[in-house]
Amino acid sequence: xxxxxxxxxxxPFPVKxxxxxxxxxxxxxxxxxxxxxxxxxxxxxxxxxxxxKTPQFYKELNRLKRAAVCLGFYELLEGVAQICERxxxxxxxxxxxxxxxxxxxxxxxxxxxxxxxxxHTILPRPTNFNAGKI
Length: 134
Description:
Layout: H1 33-47, H2 54-71, H3 74-89, H4 97-110
Helix pairs in contact: 1-2, 2-3, 3-4
């Protein structure tokens, strides 16, 4: 009989969660080669504009690193480290010294074992050139 059913007036839906839905953040998609190339180029574009783009550079670098570690694509970390070193050697003389300091630092960190931890975040190296801008 329907009278035996416990009917509630308050609906439990929608279910609320403290977790952020997966669709609320932009996921990394590397289905095509162009996807990974554009992510690396974005990091390099910010790198060339250091120290002004320090927060954006590290945000994109950490996004790239986290995706690589999640996918087990550790070779990408070494590749980005090599690219950072190469860019450091190709910098024009009018670029801030902070640019070469940060790129050398990032190359070193990307090769460290700590980088294989998905929760590890690369933080900007404090310098006299970016003091108060981080």
